[in-house]
Write a structure and sequence with these properties.
two-stranded antiparallel sheet, 7 helices, alpha/beta, globular
């Protein structure tokens, strides 16, 4: 199995930064949205399809199906951008056999239970525990909003 082109946690899924910044830098030809909720909701699927640029293949799959596809010979992994809504989905991919070396933590939105760790990353204790599990598996966790921004290792912001 090859290395996945890029894995990003961004609860907005596909939006302007993904389309304008990340796709061009990564030269990806496929976006995999690995998200149970998006895969199950026709309206959200339609919005994601509308946001995807022409010429880019889009797969909107429940996390378990995304894991199976990413582990299949069909996936041209170096050209794939995987977008996840949350850390739980990232952990589920790894637990379903997907080899991930690095995760870009791009956007985890605020809510009343979460603490701010960067301009775009708000986490609660469960998030931190799940990120710690990924780190224990040897996965590098980098907070970075756009490609031309300097990344920061996630736990350097937490500790």
């Amino acid at each position: 199995m090859g290395k996945i082109g890029h894995v990003r946690i961004d609860d907005r899924l596909i939006h302007g930064q993904i389309v304008a910044a990340w796709l061009s830098v990564l030269r990806s030809n496929t976006i995999v949205v690995a998200d149970d909720k998006a895969a199950a909701e026709p309206f959200q699927r339609m919005l994601l399809e509308m946001a995807c640029p022409p010429g880019i293949a889009l797969k909107i799959l429940p996390v378990a199906e995304a894991a199976a596809w990413l582990c299949s010979p069909e996936a041209d992994l170096p050209k794939v951008l995987v977008v996840l809504r949350n850390v739980e989905s990232a952990l589920a991919l790894v637990e379903n056999g997907v080899a991930i070396e690095e995760i870009n933590v791009g956007n985890v939105s605020a809510n009343a239970r979460k603490t701010k760790y960067s301009k775009s990353v708000w986490l609660d204790e469960a998030d931190i525990a799940n990120f710690a599990r990924l780190k224990e598996k040897g996965i590098y966790l980098e907070v970075r909003v756009v490609p031309n921004e300097k990344g920061t290792e996630l736990f350097s912001l937490i500790e």
